[in-house]
Design goal:
3-stranded antiparallel β-sheet; alpha+beta; elongated; single chain
Amino acid sequence: MSKGKHTKLPWKIGVTSDNRTVVSSGMGKAFIGIVADVEVDHWKESRRGDKDVDAVREEINANGAFIVKAVNSHDQLVKALKLAQSQLEYCGYGDAWERECAEEADVEGKIDEALKAAGEEMK
């Protein structure tokens, strides 16, 4: 099974005329998805049962913005992690004290875990 490619970056967050928080591609030409759809009735209650619809809307917008920020920064973060990984392999940790600190903090292990979580090949 081949892996499909995601929609071209950057993604952006927006609100439609019917008040839905959506994610789309850079120029808004490719619809990616609805973050959430809050339906408000006459009494201003959301489907989630919250009385404060404005707070629900703010949370939905914050979730959408977080998704977009994560997606748009993914490639740059992976590139930085791979560079840090290769520098550790090539240059080492420096002197004994730096090596001890890095090993104690499991710097290399954390880089490997982050790359694995991002779906990237480890060294």
